[in-house]
Amino acid sequence: MQTPALPDLAHTATKPMHWLATAAAMAGVVALAGLLQPRTATATATAPEQRTTTQHGAPAPAPDPVGVEFPLECGGAGTTVAKKASGDLDGDGRPETVAVVHCAAGSGTPPGGIYVLTQGSGAAPRVVATLVDPADRKTVGDFAVRDGVVSATLLGYSSLDVPRCCPDQEEQASWRWKGQAFVRTSGDLARSV
Question: Using DSSP, how many helices (H) and how many strands (E) does the chain show?
Fold first, then answer.
């Protein structure tokens, strides 16, 4: 009988304790990953100086995006208003609502759109502008409405080879009402993250 030149290696003969230690280590990694999530994005708005009031002297309410038909093709899945913020964007003293909306996908990161809503006296809220079209395949990170400016961090992908879970491009964008339309300005275009 020939004896092996190398001694038995510990990892070649697994025992139940090895599997228990591996399972505990994996559980620790998953728990740690859950704790180290990016901070939750928040949408904030500042109070405009001039406000339209109702008949009873209360400030006019901002449009509520619930029940609004957004120009978003979801194939029957429905839509989700992920974030919203309000402010007087056009200087008329009446607040508009800006909503970040995406398809109600069960998982993953579906592309989203950013829509501006307005509401006349007694009328239903309606979409008056699309700032980000879901066809651009962007997801919206940080988002805010301040002093008449809408700002957002847009996340995207440099190619089809990039996994859809992990955007590798980031763009800072903002929109301000000028004349008859929202004008977009961008910060770092297509910056790798």
Answer: 1, 9
Q: Give dist(CA 157, CA 53) in Å, integer.
A: 44
Give residue 104's identity as a one-letter amino acid code. A
C-beta of residue 80 within 8 angstroms of C-beta of residue 98: no
pTM of the complete model: 0.67
Cα gap 181→14, rounded to integer Å: 67
From residue 174, alpha-carbon distances to 53, 102, 110, 112, 185 in Å are: 28, 19, 21, 16, 5
Cα angle: 103, vertex 108, 109; to 5 degrees: 60
Q: Above 70 in pLDDT, residue 130?
A: yes
State the alpha helices, DSSP H only, in 36-174: none
- Distance (Å, whole) CA 85 – CA 143: 8
